[in-house]
Specification:
There is one protein chain. The protein is an alpha+beta fold. It folds into 2 domains: 11-94 and 114-200, no CATH class; 204-357, no CATH class. It is built from 16 helices and 12 strands. The protein has helices spanning 11-15, 19-29, 46-54, 62-66, 115-133, 150-156, 204-208, 226-232, 239-245, 254-257, 282-285, 290-297, 306-321, 327-333, 339-357, 387-390, and strands at 34-39, 83-90, 103-106, 139-142, 161-162, 168-169, 177-184, 214-216, 219-220, 248-250, 279-281, 382-386. The radius of gyration is 22 Å and the shape is elongated.
Length: 392
């Protein structure tokens, strides 16, 4: 994996600019394509986030409840914080090719090295630079593992608005980027917040969601989101939602793929990734033992699902898309020592046999829509980039 080199910046240019300007130049030189500054005050959307938790939309992500109070103010992360520098790192937005037989799709942000390590490394370099500029200052870089309502602060830093798919959207960069933050004790001049929204009457993301996970515009029920189901859920995927997963093995990009603001996203600029991981052979995955799984996915986002979760997902994908050629691998998986993998494999075998014999599956209706809830801008544990984030 290679990171962009730290670009050289004219000393005259740096000397003639403000600290805020020099900070943004340095951030871009380190690979962050978006950078804005927000004041370190209480999160605007914290009350809505609390109501979102009360509705049960976080599902089994208990850490969101445990960390809930800490998300009210960035002081929970850095006691002396005065400013929050919000940053965005683009990841590849190229259009996917058709998925080959027996393969599962990987969300774009997860097609390579674990982004946490890369972003933490670059954040540390940015913090070191700021601390040199302002001696005795204290700065801390965070990604989506910290209790920060990151999209809230990104909007306040002027990076974009919260779309109906609950993603942060930039008019210039779309939504294919990962958010990070540098909390600092330095009192920086904040940027104007992004006060307008540009989704208009468009509802493509809400309508395209295969599992009908949006309760209302900007309100995601994570328990029905493919990213949650394939990454965060550690138990069997509810049967009524399995067909909606389609060929998504890890994460989901549907609500971003249909967004008009991503049509012009630069496909050539992206997080260091492995293009061959856009799709992965699910039959091959089912043959991995624990040691082989760890060796293959050790430094990738996919390790979060663990072997049992990723093999469960592989079985579900084969159940949705596979044919008779997938049956031997599924029959072996049905004898796996893990009951969750066994159950998913047996379900998949049944689905394939029904297709081969032309027998209709029992109706699998989605849960009825819930009433409209409150707008929530927090990433629910990388559900989308995680979550997802985009879910965090």
């Amino acid at each position: 994996m290679s990171l962009p080199p730290v670009a050289s910046v004219s000393e005259d240019r740096l000397a003639a600019s403000t600290l805020e300007d020099r900070l943004k130049v340095r951030a871009r030189a380190l690979g962050f394509s978006l950078c804005g500054i927000a004041p370190a005050t209480a999160a605007d959307t914290f009350p809505a986030f609390q109501r979102w938790l009360e509705h049960g939309y976080a599902g089994a992500m208990d850490y969101l409840h445990r960390q809930g109070p800490a998300r009210q103010h960035p002081q929970s992360i850095l006691a002396l914080v005065r400013s929050v520098v919000m940053l965005g790192w683009k990841y590849a937005a190229a259009q996917d090719l058709p998925t080959p037989p027996h393969h599962g799709r990987i969300a774009r942000y997860a097609r390579g090295t674990d982004y946490h390590e890369v972003l933490w490394q670059q954040l540390d370099l940015l913090a070191d630079w700021l601390n040199q500029e302002v001696p005795q200052s204290i700065s801390r870089g965070v990604v989506d593992t910290a209790p920060l309502l990151e999209r809230d602060f990104a909007r306040r830093a002027g990076l974009g608005w919260i779309g109906k798919n609950s993603m942060l959207i930039s008019k210039h960069d779309g939504s294919y980027f990962l958010l990070a933050a540098l909390l600092t004790s330095v009192e920086l001049q904040p940027d104007p917040p992004h006060l307008t929204e540009h989704c208009g009457s468009c509802t493509r993301c809400l309508e395209a969601c295969p599992t009908q996970a949006f309760v209302a515009p900007k309100v995601l029920d994570a328990t029905r989101c493919i990213s949650y189901l394939t990454i965060e859920l550690k138990t069997p995927i509810p049967e009524p939602l399995r067909s909606g997963i389609g060929d998504w093995l890890f994460g989901c990009d549907v609500c971003q793929e249909v967004c008009p603001w991503n049509r012009k996203a630069d496909a050539s600029i992206g997080f260091p990734d492995r293009p061959e991981w856009a799709v992965i052979d699910c039959i091959d995955l089912l043959s991995l033992d624990e040691n082989q799984f760890r060796a293959r996915f050790r430094n990738t986002p996919m390790k979060r699902s663990k072997r049992r979760g990723l093999l469960r997902n592989a079985a579900i994908v084969l159940g949705n898309t596979g044919d008779q050629h997938a049956l031997p691998a599924l029959q072996r998986a049905a004898l796996d020592a893990d009951p969750m993998i066994q159950q998913a494999a047996l379900w998949a075998i049944e689905q394939i046999q029904r297709r081969l014999t032309g027998t209709k599956s029992p109706s699998s209706e989605f849960p009825s829509s819930l009433e409209d809830g409150d707008t929530v801008v927090d990433s629910t544990a990388d559900v989308a980039k995680s979550s997802a984030s985009h879910l965090s």
